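Researcher: I'd like a candidate sequence for this fold, 228 residues long. If you have to choose between options at a position, lean toward the conservative one.
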């Protein structure tokens, strides 16, 4: 009677894997092979064309496919992205890569292909997964709410670098506490750089500067205007 727990092993027709015992069965010799242990885990030695290869038992276990893992455009077969954990899974190493949090608050990850490394923002990967046909060359991905760690697709939009800068919050080095306004010797100065055009004007009072700032920024930046 055929054992229902025995399943094929890809590339090794003379062996089968017992999913219950978690052991390899040698069809020709009609016996189970002994598992061996090493620092990398439990393994078994299989032969094909007189060549020996150590196979990890973990790799033989059929694991249920994770529905949250999706392909990354341009890195199919190398990596997948977990849309729930917002992490990259290395197919070759069979493990998740660790995101790097930079000083600017953005999460990044390094991917390798053809011996070349490239660093991508998690927000860029999320956007590409949801918009695989879009060309992002020369464009930024903006966080609508200004939070660089909120990488939900609903919070991301494609934009120019100028628009992305418009949606940034006030810099910590700002002397007035108000975005686009700095305190000068005889009052306050409003400055805005938009599409390589500089808008600037001096005011005696902070209130005047804020009023002018609000009108100008909304006019020049539109939906990307951020006054905070």
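Model: Candidate sequence:
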């Amino acid at each position: 009677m055929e054992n229902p727990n025995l399943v094929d092993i890809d590339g090794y027709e003379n062996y089968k894997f017992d999913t219950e015992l978690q052991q390899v069965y040698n069809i020709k010799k009609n016996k189970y092979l002994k598992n061996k242990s090493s620092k990398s885990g439990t393994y078994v030695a299989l032969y094909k064309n007189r060549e020996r290869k150590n196979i990890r038992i973990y790799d033989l276990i059929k694991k249920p496919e994770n529905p949250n893992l999706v392909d990354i455009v341009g890195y199919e077969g190398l990596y997948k992205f977990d849309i729930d954990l917002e992490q990259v899974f290395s197919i070759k190493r069979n493990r998740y890569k660790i995101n790097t949090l930079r000083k600017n608050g953005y999460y990044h990850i390094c991917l390798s292909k053809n011996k070349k490394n490239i660093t991508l923002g998690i927000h860029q990967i999320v956007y590409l997964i949801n918009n695989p046909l879009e060309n992002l060359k020369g464009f930024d991905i903006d966080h609508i709410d200004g939070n660089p760690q909120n990488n939900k697709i609903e919070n991301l939009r494609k934009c120019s670098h100028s628009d992305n800068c418009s949606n940034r919050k006030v810099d910590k080095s700002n002397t007035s506490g108000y975005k686009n306004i700095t305190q000068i010797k005889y009052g306050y100065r409003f400055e805005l750089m938009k599409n390589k055009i500089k808008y600037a004007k001096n005011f005696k009072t902070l209130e005047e500067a804020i009023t002018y700032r609000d009108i100008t920024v909304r006019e020049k930046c539109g939906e990307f205007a951020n006054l905070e």
